[in-house]
Inverse folding.
């Protein structure tokens, strides 16, 4: 390590340049990680808020809640110990004459066990045109007591409560009754019965009567989340970008250290002639990679954390300390691996040839 520090101090400009490159790559990795977690949260947060284990969907739904339909007759043949039925509908609500906000409506019984905690106001009641909105919508200007036109039929729904920020498929969530959702979907004079898309099971066993067992299936929450449209593809894309950045670091460090090794062959030859072992020289090279990558990644970590405070609210950015520490460790390890390519060259140096003997 002593030789590594001496070498870095002697060639400040050269090692500052490679450190800056590692910093920039690590910075992009941390920012992409934050965006990945933030976007994933926007897709699945409402599902996580249920704190459930399983969900019952129709077999034809392709594991998508909104595509599932459970009739009222069949609902009585699905037996659960702890949970609630729900309906999901995506639409928009009017913010002004020329502006609408996309929302995901979740309809529940007013005594539902997956009802969100109300931070302000009160819960909605069945057979009333009332709703609980996400904190995110409240931050956009919606207030308790306000009546908002929802859906294509512009049904007036009164805001009676505000829950924590939550979203489903990147749209903020509102909670309301089945009767209110029925009017939002079909109009005030609709005679259609309220539909149920899923049965959420918080805990316990699920029993589906044999007469309808082939029409419905029990799905784990993790499988449900993975099949949310766009969720898996988005995560795979951002993860692939991060993995390619790891490869770039490996190649940059490998090439940089290999070039330095070639330039210093005469010096290494003299060191070997003086009795300095290959191990000491190789440890010095690995030490340089470790120090440069550690400093670059650490500065990038701090810079990324600082950046999180100035990003606009519209940008879905969420810090996962576990992911950041893991990626930091991978970047450092990859940097060290990159320098291993030069070890073969060091081992092959012949002192007599290197110094012109």
């Amino acid at each position: 390590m002593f030789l590594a520090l001496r070498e870095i101090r002697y060639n400040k400009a050269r090692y500052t340049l490679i450190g800056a490159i590692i910093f920039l790559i690590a910075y992009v990795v941390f920012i992409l990680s934050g965006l990945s977690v933030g976007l994933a949260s926007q897709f699945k947060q409402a599902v996580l808020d249920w704190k459930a284990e399983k969900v019952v969907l129709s077999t034809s739904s392709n594991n998508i809640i909104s595509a599932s339909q459970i009739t009222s007759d069949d609902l009585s043949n699905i037996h659960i110990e702890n949970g609630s039925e729900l309906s999901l509908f995506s639409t928009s609500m009017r913010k002004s004459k020329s502006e609408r906000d996309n929302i995901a409506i979740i309809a529940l019984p007013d005594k539902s066990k997956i009802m969100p905690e109300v931070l302000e106001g009160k819960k909605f009641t069945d057979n009333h045109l009332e709703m609980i909105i996400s904190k995110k919508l409240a931050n956009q200007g919606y207030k308790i007591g306000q009546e908002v036109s929802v859906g294509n039929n512009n049904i007036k729904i009164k805001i009676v409560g505000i829950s924590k920020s939550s979203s489903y498929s990147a749209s903020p969530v509102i909670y309301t009754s089945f009767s209110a959702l029925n009017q939002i979907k079909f109009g005030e004079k609709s005679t259609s019965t309220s539909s149920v898309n899923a049965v959420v099971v918080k805990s316990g066993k699920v029993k589906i009567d044999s007469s309808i067992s082939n029409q419905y299936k029990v799905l784990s929450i993790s499988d449900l989340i993975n099949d949310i449209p766009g969720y898996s593809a988005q995560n795979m894309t951002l993860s692939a970008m991060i993995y390619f950045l790891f490869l770039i670091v490996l190649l940059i460090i490998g090439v940089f250290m290999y070039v330095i090794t070639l330039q210093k062959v005469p010096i290494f030859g003299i060191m070997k002639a003086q009795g300095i072992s290959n191990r000491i020289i190789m440890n010095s090279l690995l030490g340089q990679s470790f120090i440069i990558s550690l400093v670059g990644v650490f500065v990038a970590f701090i810079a990324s954390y600082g950046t999180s405070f100035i990003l606009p609210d519209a940008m879905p950015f969420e810090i996962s300390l576990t992911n950041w520490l893991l990626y930091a460790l991978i970047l450092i390890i990859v940097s060290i691996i990159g320098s291993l390519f030069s070890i073969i060259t060091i081992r092959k140096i012949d002192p007599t040839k290197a110094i012109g003997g």
User: Anything to note?
Assistant: The chain has twelve helices and eleven strands. The longest strand covers residues 78-96. The CA atoms of residues 269 and 353 lie 8 Å apart. The two ends are 30 Å apart (CA to CA).
